[in-house]
Design the sequence.
């Protein structure tokens, strides 16, 4: 399994329940595809964007580390693109050390 890092920005007007539900759904996808959620970086949360995205000037940032297969990344990418809760996302494979 490879180690990945995912950074995603959620819309700032989401209710706390929807925010938690979205995070649980992503963690479930990682687990369902044989991956392993490692951790979530602290200290992010709601931040001002450098430029407006869909008329939003703020977003809720989350940075995660997880292990998985390329299929895991493909499914996460697909689900995030279909959802209207996300402003931006990026998934990066970590180099072997």
Sequence:
């Amino acid at each position: 399994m490879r180690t990945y890092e995912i950074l995603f920005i959620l819309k700032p007007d989401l209710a706390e329940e929807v925010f938690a539900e979205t995070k649980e759904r992503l963690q479930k996808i990682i687990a369902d595809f044989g991956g392993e959620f490692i951790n979530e970086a602290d200290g992010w949360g709601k931040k001002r964007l450098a430029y407006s995205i869909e008329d939003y000037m703020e977003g809720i940032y989350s940075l995660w580390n997880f292990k998985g297969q390329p299929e895991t990344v493909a499914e996460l990418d697909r689900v995030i693109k279909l959802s209207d809760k996300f402003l931006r996302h990026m998934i990066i494979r970590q180099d072997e050390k």
Remarks:
- The chain has one domain: 2-93.
